[in-house]
UniProtKB/TrEMBL annotation:
This is Aspartyl/glutamyl-tRNA(Asn/Gln) amidotransferase subunit B. Keywords: ATP-binding, Ligase, Nucleotide-binding, Protein biosynthesis. Pfam families: GatB_N, GatB_Yqey. Residues 339-486 form the Asn/Gln amidotransferase domain. The gene is gatB. Its EC number is 6.3.5.-. It comes from Sphingomonas cremea. Transmembrane segments: none annotated. It comes from the Bacteria. The lineage of its organism: Bacteria, Pseudomonadati, Pseudomonadota, Alphaproteobacteria, Sphingomonadales. SMART domains: GatB_Yqey (SM00845).
Amino acid sequence: MSDYRIKGATGDWEVVVGLEVHAQVVSDAKLFSGAATAFGAEPNTQVSLVDAAMPGMLPVPNCECIRQAVRTGMALDAVINRWSRFDRKNYFYADLPQGYQISQLYHPLVGPGEVEILLDEKDENSVKQIGIERIHVEQDAGKLMHDQHPTMSYVDLNRSGVALMEIVSRPDMSSPAEAGAYLRKLRAILRYVGSCDGNMEEGSMRADVNVSVRRPGGELGTRTETKNVNSVRFVMAVIEHEARRQVDLIEEGGEVAQETRLYDPDKNVTRTLRSKEDAHDYRYFPDPDLLPLELDEAFIEECRASLPELPDDKRKRFEGLGITPYNASVLTAEVETARWFDALLDAGAEARQAANWVVAELFGALNRLGKTIVDAPVSPQQAAELLGLVADGTLSGSLAKQVFEIMLDTGDDAGKIVDERGLKQTSDTGEIDAKIDEILAANADKVEQYKAGKEALFGFFVGQTMKAMAGKANPQMVNERLRAKLN
């Protein structure tokens, strides 16, 4: 159990959190029509007669959307229901042409599963399992646009009928940090699988945040649901604000209403949207236009065989190569990073050295340049060559940094830069000895001080020698020759 607590006037309170994540399925067509799903199209240009609910139009399930949801369930180690069914969820809203949403209440496609999170990325023992209750497939509604006209709202039906997976967690999270870790991990798994692109800023992944408070170990309190939160940071902010609001309300003698709320990121507050509906308010019934989904073993096996190596398995493999748990966690957090690093290993880089270099040097450079690993100016093959030149003694650590900066600017390979600019490290003892003799002769007073016990001066002599050789001397050789001469 998390030690996160809300400090109230009458004592401590625990937070209980569950998330319902709506993830847009990666598919060229919608759930029940052939209309396109591309983001950013002109309003109402991706709407079929089915999406617009024209009379007599019948839905036909898109097999790819079902396949992607099954693959997602498998990646979450969840039960795949061989028999599932679509239901109609009835409500009127201007952006819902049919007057109902096709969803799955009673018999979802995917049953219970779980997501493993690390509460501390540097501690591989800080593991917690977050339960998944179900994943059901449903169609999205359209979008109301309130800022296009002074007195009217416009409707854009491009999203109407887009396939969504609703991934419903159990109320197993007890702090904003746990919810953040869960959402980041879930997003990573979906992106590894390729079933959702995870672009929260484009609305293709958003969360409904269920929050309640209770005395430590006590009965569950009344929960509120904050709808359509579109970033990990905002999800954490909602939990913090909503838990504090509920505690203050209860301690002042009030009662938490079971309701749906909206989050205002500009003011960092939640506000009432509507009272919370129950299932019976929606008058669910089986959709008469759609047969139940029945999955055969061949389909299930094809889905399983198509799964890639998932984040946890990849992290364990990296750790098995000698990479630290923290670095392995960082390298597997985003699918593009993991693929880039695998390409670096395939190009011959030594795992531990490569991991340290990517996390420290490459990420630092990308951050400075405002780039992601997808548009990195250096390829995995170029990086492997650079690291190989360090490993075989051609470059020292400091020379490698110089060469890397030139690679970022020019796009040239490391070997070409070393040859053209004469940046090879020297291990020529004669040349190093000659420079050391010059340094010691020019600093006779410091030599005496060193011999009298001021050993900290050793670093001064190393620095002066490296400077005299323009950073090209082998540091290990410089250390060895200096000690021999000084002692």
